[in-house]
Amino acid sequence: MEFQHELIIPNEGLPFKIFLFEGGHGNYEREKHWHTSIEIFAVLKGGLTFFLNDEEYPLEAGGLIIINSNEIHSIHAPGKNETVVLQIPLKQFEKYFTAQRFIRFTSAARVAKDRKNKAPDNRKLAFFIEELYKAYRAKEEGWEYRTMALYYNILYLMVRDYRETEAAQEEIQDSRRLDALSKITSYMREHYTEEMKLSDMAALFGYSDAYLSRMFKKYAKINFKAYLQEIRMSYAYRELSNTEKTISQIALDNGFASSRAFSREFQKKYGDLPSELRQKLAVIR
């Protein structure tokens, strides 16, 4: 399977992640990947093309598509575009699962080929997603209440208008092949500050060390240790950007053995030492 698992971490203090699509300048391709979270792309300007299970779904301004949990997809953006991406943890919908940890959503882009089904009207959902992004970016007084109000409107519309109440057994089985690893990676994101070994995780989830190691290499295209490092580094980067904590404190708070070890790995990943990046961010602000 030539696809990778994508690590998704919510925005600081929020139960979701919202941002502008990184391929907005065009000439961009995102290879096949998957993640546990539900993902919505709302195109404001320009256009891009999605590939879901080798089916092509072109989107133009005003278009919207929902990517389901564990759904393998890739993206092609040859031209400039402005696209808001909203990523919602799967557990937000646990009251509406049609099977164990299974829920599916549709969208106009996905049912356009099937004239028997009536496509939901995307205008409301697209409106709330754009407004959510604006409120999050502006951060005006009371923005926390505004963003959560918009977010719950989005969840409401998704459950009411987009949720599929029936699921084929084959689709459920296909999803479950990735669900086992999703449970493990979710646990890792919740406990990443603690000491964590492959053998401990294997015992916790009832696998042998060798089987769990193969699972990571096959489905996440990365080994267990490197994946844990990615989690720790992502949270540390966020703290470095958004807090006044010392670099030593950030390193220790995010599971690194020392500030030296953190700085070494940080420079490998981002090209700068933590102190250098913090200086650059201070100039931008």
Descriptors:
Arc Repressor Mutant, subunit A, 2 domains, Jelly Rolls, 10 helices, alpha+beta
Q: Low-confidence parts, pLDDT < 50 over ≥5 residues?
A: 112-116
Strand proportion: 15-25%
Number of strands: 8
Task: Write down the overall geometry.
Answer: globular
Mean pLDDT comes to: 86
Radius of gyration: 20 Å
CATH superfamily of the largest domain: Jelly Rolls
CATH class of the largest domain: Mainly Beta
| SSE order | EEEEEEEEHHHHHHHHHH
Main structural class: alpha+beta
CATH topology of the largest domain: Jelly Rolls
Q: What composes the largest sheet?
A: 8 strands, mixed
Number of helices: 10
Distance between the termini: 42 Å
Q: Tell me the count of domains.
A: 2
**Could you estimate the helical fraction of the residues in percent?**
40-55%
> Which architecture of the largest domain would the CATH scheme give at its second level?
Sandwich
Pfam families: AraC_binding, HTH_18
Protein name: Helix-turn-helix transcriptional regulator
Domain HTH araC/xylS-type: 182-280
GO molecular function, one term: DNA-binding transcription factor activity
Short description:
GO terms for molecular function: DNA-binding transcription factor activity; sequence-specific DNA binding. Strand 4 (38-52) and strand 5 form a beta hairpin.
Describe this structure in words.
The chain is α+β, with helices and mostly antiparallel strands. The protein has 2 domains: about 5-160, Jelly Rolls; about 190-285, Homeodomain-like (Arc Repressor Mutant, subunit A, Orthogonal Bundle). It has helices spanning about 110, 120-140, 145-160, 170-190, 200-205, 210-220, 225-240, 245-255, 260-270, 275-285, and strands spanning about 5, 15-20, 30-35, 40-50, 55-60, 65, 75, 80-90. Strands 1, 2, 3, 4, 5, 6, 7 and 8 form an 8-stranded mixed sheet that branches. Helix 2 runs antiparallel to helix 3 and helix 8 (about 245-255) crosses helix 9. The chain is globular. About 30% of the residues are buried.
